[in-house]
UniProtKB/TrEMBL annotation:
Catalysed reaction, written as an equation: N-acetyl-L-glutamate 5-semialdehyde + phosphate + NADP(+) = N-acetyl-L-glutamyl 5-phosphate + NADPH + H(+)
This protein's record includes keyword Calcium: no
Protein name: N-acetyl-gamma-glutamyl-phosphate reductase
Residue ranges of every copy of the Semialdehyde dehydrogenase NAD-binding domain listed in the record: 3-141
Location of this chain's protein in the cell: Cytoplasm
Length: 342
């Protein structure tokens, strides 16, 4: 059994990790930390886990993290980098669901996240945990930078086009919408029920923290820098991301065949039939990205629709997928749930 610890178990990503790991046949939950809730039984805070998780929250100092096989950080940005070096030295594998190790340019990371990096030497070692691109490297890693939710939906949507070199990468557009759980489990005015319900708005148009992460990933696929306009929106739903992606084709290509070939054998990417319009509810609570590709009026514009659950394929589910790869388990183990509908 894999002994797993979670640092930061009280947020939406943390409880999603608990839900998935509690039903994983090869995982034993060894520690769940929370400074504020230390001593409280997990099932008292999250009754959905009654009968499945018997642990209580502990402080990070008291938790037996160094005796774990893997530790997940479901914490705010800037926390994992403070503790990762010590865990790696103890032989523990680390999967960070925050952004501490995603961006290879440390100066660029500091600009977007407003702090100095505590262990820049580990950034170069960290493997970006998007399995559909980095599967071989993930299997050999000891430190995984789990991708962000928007970057997962956008990169998987653009990947076949950029890899094949059939799209003009100087003017890509990612028009994305997210449910309110993407803002985290906290009290902020803009995500209050009365503020977010029956409304729809764009935000961070001047620049979102996920922009450099997406650009970095697309540049790796293309072999050169790319031009990207990324505009996120807040929608009045709890879970889900819908990314509508636009680009100009450089050559005529059978788009459906391109996507089906690229994602053949990828358990967690579903290329839908021609003319499909995937909905966020079709991926609710599962680790799947559903994609549809369109060429309106047969012109040179390609439109890709990519949907994921921001808490699963966009966070906790992808982290479990990475854990499976790290420990040479079937990639889909513990992640074969059917989407919740309605």
């Amino acid at each position: 059994m894999i002994k797993a610890g979670i640092v930061g178990g009280t947020g939406y990503t943390g409880v999603e990790l608990l839900r998935l790991l509690a039903q994983h046949p090869e995982v034993e939950l060894a520690a769940i930390t929370s400074r504020k809730e230390a001593g409280m039984p997990v099932a008292e805070m999250f009754p959905s886990l009654r009968g499945r998780v018997s642990l209580a929250f502990t402080t990070p100092e008291e938790a037996p993290l160094k005796s774990c096989d893997v530790v997940f950080f479901a914490t705010p940005n800037g926390i994992a980098m403070q503790q990762t070096r010590e865990l790696l030295e103890a032989g523990v594998k680390v999967i960070d669901l925050a952004a501490d190790f995603r961006i290879k340019d440390v100066a660029e990371w500091s600009k977007w996240y407003g702090m100095e990096h505590a262990c820049p030497e580990l950034v170069a070692e960290a493997v970006y945990g998007l399995p559909e691109i980095n599967r071989a490297a993930i299997k050999q890693a000891r430190l995984i930078a789990n991708p962000g939710c928007y970057p997962t939906a956008v990169q998987l949507g653009f990947l076949p086009l950029v890899e094949a070199g059939v799209i003009d990468t100087s003017g890509l557009v990612a028009d994305c919408k997210s449910g309110v759980s993407g803002a985290g489990r906290k009290a902020e005015t803009h995500i209050l029920y009365a503020e977010a319900t029956d409304s729809f708005k764009a935000y961070a148009v001047a620049g979102h923290r996920h922009l450099p992460e997406i650009r970095q990933g697309l540049a790796r696929m293309a072999g050169h820098d790319v031009g990207l306009t990324f505009v996120p929106h807040l929608t009045p739903m709890i879970r889900g991301i819908h990314a509508t992606l636009y680009g100009k084709l450089k050559k005529d290509v059978d788009l459906q065949a391109l996507y089906e070939k690229r994602y053949a054998g990828e358990y967690f990417v579903d290329v839908m039939p021609p003319k499909s319009h995937p909905e966020t509810r079709s991926v609710r609570a599962i680790n799947t990205c559903r994609i549809a590709v369109h060429r309106p009026q047969g012109g040179d514009t390609v439109v890709v629709l990519s949907v994921i659950d921001n808490l699963v394929k966009g966070a906790a589910g992808q982290a479990v997928q990475n854990m499976n790869l790290l420990f040479d388990l079937p990639e889909q183990m513990g992640l074969t749930q059917i989407a919740v509908s309605p």
